[in-house]
Amino acid sequence: MNILPSNVQKLMQLLQRIPGLGPKSAARVAMFLLTSPKGYTKELGEVIANLKEEIVYCKMCFNIASSTPCEICDSQERDESIICVVEDPLDVLAFENGTDFKGKYHVLGGVISPVNGIGPEDLTIAQLINRLEGGKVKEIIIATNPNIEGEATAMYIKQEILNLSSQALKVGKRDLKITRLARGLPSGADLEYADKTTLKKSFEGRTNF
Amino acid sequence: MNILPSNVQKLMQLLQRIPGLGPKSAARVAMFLLTSPKGYTKELGEVIANLKEEIVYCKMCFNIASSTPCEICDSQERDESIICVVEDPLDVLAFENGTDFKGKYHVLGGVISPVNGIGPEDLTIAQLINRLEGGKVKEIIIATNPNIEGEATAMYIKQEILNLSSQALKVGKRDLKITRLARGLPSGADLEYADKTTLKKSFEGRTNF
Asked: Domains of chain B: which residue ranges?
């Protein structure tokens, strides 16, 4: 006997694929949708169903966008001599909302992760290197996450850029800065509760006061 | 400047209405959907958009179903003399999966909750009382949740049934049992960590051994 209608069962199965939703929370979300106004479920469903059709990846920075090149890459007001390299589109959103960075971005599409079978060739690293040709770019901020995979990816990208630079230096002079976001205590932190690595990094990177 | 395409922004807004999803987790779910295979988002979207069209509420028990009366209400193999009263369809699912109950159900559609503006008239209590007329029902298991609102709703329903019974008793004889699920220690529990109310209830309800 089917206790629930087949489409509700189907919905629960599909929702369970979303990271962070187990069988119980998928069931709760399904119940919420069942008891929501019809207009809401209709709208949400249609947005999800047509999601991929209206999305493109910017051919310059590989961010998700409604057109390519994206608004940021296309903008004349943004400094093209500085590129901030991030893991995914949410990081671009975080920088745009949280900083006054006015350069360009490059979205890697992930990090190098042998465990998950993701190598450098699965990311947009080669396309980033291509963007450096021509000599317009003066600084690369490698803003991958400060964890093991993010650090390893940052190291890999740095090495790739240095390989390119040494070749490029033979031909013409080039001054390319490679930077990484500062590590240290987060604002509002309590020294007592800071973890070892953070404390060590904040010591190493201490600044003149 | 719109950093994200408008449909992705829309998606994030809509997802935030789901209980348990804040702005950050809604953004993560949106990113997951963006990077999922197109077949998956298409299927999920269509199931959600058409959810309401394929769902009816059983006119007997008010459970969600694909037809009315639902399979359980329609079944000749289930004991119609015993009704298990639950808050929502997920509870029916839990009983069907976890017990061998072979009676019928009645789905209230929530609990009495003055804070949320939900009164007895918003639930299917009157319809439950109607089902008791005729005298076929011998037991009502009030299986609302063992919390304040669930208890209050159970008390209310009990009183309504008693009001009906005393009237009915004037006409003919009637033997209607009203029961509530046992309270006590959950299986695998550790006495040390049991909360006061649970411990008290398990004392009060101790059984012969």
From this structure: 6-52, 79-204
Is residue A20 within 8 angstroms of chain B, CB to CB?
yes
Distance of residue B193 Cα from the nearest chain A Cα, in angstroms = 24
ipTM of the predicted assembly exceeds 0.90: no
Measured CA to CA in angstroms, residue A139 lies from A84, A156, B146 at distances of 8, 17, 61
Whether residue A46 lies within 8 A of chain B, CB to CB, comes out as yes
Residues of B in contact with A14 (CB under 8 A): 40, 43-44, 47
pTM for this predicted structure: 0.76
For residue A68, the chain B residue with the least C-alpha distance is: B5
Tens-level pLDDT at each residue, chain A (209 residues): 567 888 899 999 999 999 989 999 999 999 999 988 989 999 999 999 999 888 899 999 999 998 889 999 999 999 999 999 999 999 998 999 889 999 999 999 999 999 989 999 999 999 999 998 877 888 999 999 999 999 999 999 999 988 876 665 554 456 788 999 998 888 888 888 888 888 888 888 888 88
CATH 3.20.20.150 assigned to domain A79-204? The reply is: no
- Asked, as a colleague might, if the bond just before B23 is cis with ω within 30 of 0, I would say no
H or E, element range at A80: strand A79-86
Question: Are β-strands A56-57 and A64-65 bridged in parallel, bridged antiparallel, or unpaired?
Answer: antiparallel
Reduced to 3 states (helix: H, G, I; strand: E, B; else coil), residue B84 is strand
How near does any CA of chain B get to the CA of A43, in Å? 7
B43 at interface of A, judged by CB pairs closer than 8 A: yes
CATH code, residues B6-52: 1.10.8.420
Cα angle value B104/B109/B114 (rounded, 5°): 135
CB contacts of B88 in chain A (<8 Å) are 31
Contact A20 B25 (CB under 8 A): yes
Q: State the pairing for strand pair A139-142/A79-86.
A: parallel
Query: Looking up tokens 């959950």, which residue turns up?
Result: B186
Rg (CA), chain A: 22
B92 in Cβ contact with B63 (< 8 Å):
yes
Given a cut of 50, whether residue B17 has pLDDT beyond it is yes
Radius of gyration of chain B (CA): 22
Question: CA-to-CA distance for A106 and A123, rounded, in angstroms?
Answer: 11
